[in-house]
Design goal:
Blueprint lengths: L8 E4 L9 H8 L5 H9 L4 E2 L2 E2 L11 E4 L20 H10 E4 L3 E6 L15 H4 L11 E2 L8 E7 L2 H12 L4 E9 L6 E5 L2 E3 L8 E3 L8 E10 L3 E8 L6 H8 L8 H4 L15 E10 L2 E7 L4 H9 L19 H25 L12 E2 L2 E5 L19
Length: 398
């Protein structure tokens, strides 16, 4: 496959691009070629799919051969593509040490605590800045979800634009299963429970801190399960976020009176255990189960960071006790069923109103007997009897 800009190029449509529009394919794989150029190429027959002309809205299929004409790479007066940053030997070593597994679609990392996922003010080192280490050949990998700076564990990075779109849909659609481990202060009275508290940004914090907000917060749900306890001092819990709000697990556990150990941001001084237990945050993205574009689901587990493992040992917890994964939360609980039933009833009433409006043959409505069409349940005025007399109107014969 030639990719020189002054030669005709041929690409094979991958499985993660199956069903994508032609113009969208260019945006993923050749973003430097503008939409106007793609439209012109398609209009003049210069773009071919399996030897046939194609329009910008043509849906591609996996395995097809896409012919792309030369040119279109450079835009007069446009900005040059950002050169890849040269990474130091230390950065390359860090990037390599994080890899748990990788294939043609994904790179799964074990992010250490203290390393931000993306850059920010004064943030010199972060995962996003290390992605060039995995791009010796092909496009630069892309982040598809995030972990807090102080949270460790499984972080999935998409290797191609197509797989980035695929995995992003799984995260946004909540079909990806993310399991976290945490050590919390005290022991929840309910061993296996659901926390449903709406969350919103805390005013005055610039969006850096969240809070429970019953009036304006977004619905947020977390299932938790106590795996083991160290007397009444602390508990080891498995957390399953059913929504993806910022700092959701940290805020929810603090809200029920059991902040995550080391989380001074939401638990204050109560979040720290006495003795030699580390003051770092004890929240770890332990496992990720997600569909893969090649078929079999991706199922990856991340080892604990050093401080977390040391605290587990000091509190008498055995990692093997957490190997048995709890059953996933039901697809819909009673509240979900109520919401679904309410939505169905609303849609049904809307469709019924449409039916009544479309009737033009004088057939009676299906409302209550004697009801006017469009106003079910409201009795009609008996025929043959006049309505109420208006003030000042002459009295009629009765």
């Amino acid at each position: 496959m030639s990719q020189l800009p002054d030669q005709v190029r041929q690409f094979t449509v991958g499985s993660d691009d199956d069903g994508v529009r032609l113009d969208r394919w260019f945006k993923r794989h050749l973003p430097q070629v503008g939409f106007a150029t793609v439209s012109r190429w398609a209009r003049t027959g210069q773009i071919r799919v399996d030897g046939k002309r194609a329009d910008v809205d043509t849906r591609l299929e996996a395995g097809q051969t896409l012919r792309v004409p030369p040119g279109g790479e450079a835009k007069p007066g446009g900005k040059a593509a950002r050169p890849r940053r040269e990474l130091s030997e230390e950065e390359l070593a860090l990037a390599d040490s994080m890899v748990l597994t990788q294939d043609r679609a994904a790179i799964v990392l074990n992010k250490p605590p203290g390393l931000a996922t993306q850059g920010g003010l004064g943030m010199k080192q972060h995962v996003d800045g290390l992605l060039d280490a995995y791009a010796a050949q092909g496009p630069r990998p892309r982040l598809v979800h995030r972990l807090d700076k102080d949270t460790s564990g499984v972080l999935l990075v998409a290797r191609t634009p197509g797989s980035a779109a695929y995995f992003s849909k799984r995260f946004s659609g909540r079909s990806a299963r993310k399991i976290y481990w945490a050590l919390v202060v005290g022991v929840p009275s309910i061993a296996d429970g659901m926390i449903e508290l709406p969350l919103a940004k805390q005013p005055g914090t610039g969006g850096e801190k969240m809070q429970v907000d019953e009036e304006n917060g977004k619905p947020s749900r977390t299932r938790y399960r106590v795996i083991d306890r160290a007397g009444n001092r602390a508990a080891w819990v498995e957390l399953y976020p059913m929504t993806g709000r910022t700092h959701q697990l940290r805020v929810h556990m603090a809200a029920i009176g059991h902040p995550i150990v080391g989380d001074g941001k939401y638990g204050g001084q109560d979040a720290f255990l006495s003795g030699s237990i580390s003051r770092k945050l004890h929240l770890h993205a332990r496992r990720l189960v997600i569909d893969h574009p090649d078929g079999a689901p991706l199922d990856v587990t991340a080892p604990l960071p050093e401080h977390f493992a040391a605290s587990m040992a000091q509190l008498g917890f055995d990692e093997a006790d957490g190997a048995e994964l709890s059953a996933p939360p039901p697809e819909s609980d009673k509240q979900d069923q109520k919401r679904a039933a309410k939505a169905h009833a609303k849609q049904y009433r809307k469709e019924r109103r449409g039916e009544r409006r479309s009737r033009g043959d004088g057939s009676p409505s299906r409302g209550k007997p004697g009801a006017k069409a469009g106003k079910p349940g409201k009795p009609s005025r008996p025929s043959g009897k006049p309505g109420p007399r208006k003030p000042g109107a002459p009295r009629g014969r009765r």
